[in-house]
Amino acid sequence: MSVELPFAPVDAVIRREAGDLRVSADAAEELARRIQRHGAALAREAAEHATESGRKTLMIEDFSFADPDADADALTLPVAPVDRIARLDIPDEYRVSMDARVALAAHLEVFAADAAEGAALLAEHAGRRTVQAEDVETYFRLVE
User: Fold this and answer.
1) For the chain, is the Cβ count within 10 Å smaller at the N or the C terminus?
2) Do 136 and 123 meet the contact criterion of CB atoms below 8 Å apart?
3) Which residue, among 68, 71, 67, 49, has the nearest Cα to 58 in the 3D structure?
4) With a cut of 50, which residues of the chain have pLDDT below it?
């Protein structure tokens, strides 16, 4: 699976949540993969809602978590790759409205921040100064 999301913004989210801890490149890569899987799954569900409403465009209301006040300029995760993530597992004839892209990016950023915070706690608990991919993996095993 290729990862559509650049690692640099994901790394920035982890570093923001990790405080004084270092962050391995593998941790950022693992979190980017998890963000991508989660975003693609949310888009599949939204596409089902759009289809039920007779539309081929995913709108903000198709995402149950949608924040209509999300601001693209305030996000760390870029909207364009999030748009590509949304389109990974839905048919090509579907489109994603700009409001829905921004809301999805905002949701995925919160998702990433929660995971990063949990992974940082796990690294500290293990007595390490670096958040590693295993911390991200363990966080998701614990919450799923």
Assistant:
1) C
2) no
3) 49
4) none
